[in-house]
Amino acid sequence: MWKDRRLTQLFGIEHPIIQAPMGGAAVPLLAAAVTNAGGLGSLGTATLPAVERRRQVDELLALTSGPINLNYFVHAEPVVDVVRTARLQARLAAWYAEHGAGKPPAPAVLVPTFDAEALDHLLTVRPAVASFHFGLPKPTDVAAIKAAGIKLIATATTPQEAKALEAGGVDAVIAQGWEAGGHRGTFAPPYDKGQIGTFALVPQVADAVGVPVIAAGGIADGRGIAAALMLGASAVQLGTAFLSCPEANVHPLHRLALTQAERASIVTPAFTGRPARALANRCAADLTDAEADILDFPLQISQMWPLMQATVARGSSEFLPMWTGQAYGLNRTMPAAELVATLAREAMARLASAA
Ligand SMILES: Cc1cc2nc3c(=O)[nH]c(=O)nc-3n(C[C@H](O)[C@H](O)[C@H](O)COP(=O)(O)O)c2cc1C
Description:
By secondary structure, the chain is an alpha/beta fold. It folds into two domains: 1-76 and 113-250 and 326-355, TIM Barrel (Alpha-Beta Barrel); 78-110 and 252-321, no CATH class. It has helices spanning 6-11, 28-36, 50-63, 82-98, 116-125, 139-147, 159-167, 198-208, 222-230, 240-243, 252-260, 282-287, 299-312, 336-354, and strands at 17-19, 41-43, 68-73, 129-133, 151-156, 172-176, 182-183, 213-216, 235-238, 265-268, 276-279. The protein has an eight-stranded parallel beta sheet with strand order 1-9-8-6-5-4-3-2. Strand 2 (41-43), helix 3 (50-63) and strand 3 form a beta-alpha-beta unit. It is globular and about 60 Å long. Flavin mononucleotide is lined by residues 20-23, 25, 44, 46-47, 71, 131, 133, 176, 179-183, 216-219, 237-241, 323-325, 327.
């Protein structure tokens, strides 16, 4: 039995284990398996266009009647900077030519921000939990979500961001450490302040806010879960650890790289325009220092997408964004339900032996 029941009770789950919402990877099969195993399954809805989001939510609801989490990015509409675009496209021209990818297209928004349609759909579905990355939606939206009985959580990368989220009305704060795979949830400048490791961040966030804390970043087994709970978290959110489950939608080249544990993971804006942790490859290595040429999130995606498609078709991962956290060497390949049970068992044994 878990000692701190604040979040298990709030979300209606058995184990304080949240499978992270992962754009592209956290599909209905994965989220349903986690929820049905007693954790909180999260759908990677943030990156989906509305029609596909609705389809995946319907699919998930057909697979589970338990608590689920829907996830949204909250980012400002990007500004198309003509000069920057010209500079980036000049840089990319050689790569496009090398891979027969044609010409770089005009910048386009391929990832939606949380809007009126998404809110309306969320209020209709009424999942147990809605999670937000890159800040919170506007106060009237927050009020509507809470009035619908949906628990609201959001990512902080500093104690200051955690306080701002608490003031904004969240039911719990996700403390995302620097080890985490995927996009940094940082929303308050300066960006560099949000580069705090999980071990340092979680206790500071727990001291800063009264709402429960969810630890995220570099947690992959029972040792990490027990440590996070000892540091003051009431639950954990694991992303990378679930990428090796068969239910996750992970490109075979990425899945293979996860078993090799020989690449560094680096934080780079190269793929999308916002800093995110991925396995190092040619794209990340060559563009990470080119910040002045990188387009606003999510316009950058439209420039890198054709290169990714052309190279992946040839079996190369040099332009594939392989979002991965620093602890990926601990990944185990097993069905998601088995992973949830294993994590819970390991963590409880650790906590019992420490008591
Ligand atoms: C493949 C991948 C995709 C991710 N996509 C999202 C996303 O769409 N929305 C989000 O809030 N967080 C996303 N994250 C970040 C996770 O919510 C979480 O912070 C992170 O996975 C925790 O670190 P870990 O990967 O070391 O477990 C993603 C992480 C990964 C690994």
